[in-house]
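Example (one chain per record):
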Amino acid sequence: QVQLAESGGGLVQAGGSLRLSCVDSGRTFSDYAVGWFRQAPGKEREFVASIGWTDSSTIYANSAKGRFTISRDNAKNTAYLQMSNLEPEDTAVYYCATGRNGATMARYLYDYWGQGTQVTVSS
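Predicted structure:
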């Protein structure tokens, strides 16, 4: 049974950093691209970053460029989202997802999703 589990969220002050983790269990993790999305209260879920089967292919939302870094460790079945210089606007539930179509912003191309981890940035 495929499971994705996010962790690493929490409360941080503006300007601070957090590293989110996404652990994939139940299959060959290296066969799948990973995406991070977020959803703030009252808003649509939006794309944050994506990484292909290796570290060589990454895509970022404009809001994440220069502040967030997506990476993966296939030996640990884990993907990461390093977030720096956080802003109150980054407050949201962050979700990881996996798909077979390579790094992409398209939500519909991800077929498995985690339950999310809350990130709250105070001003």
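Caption: The longest strand covers residues 18-25.
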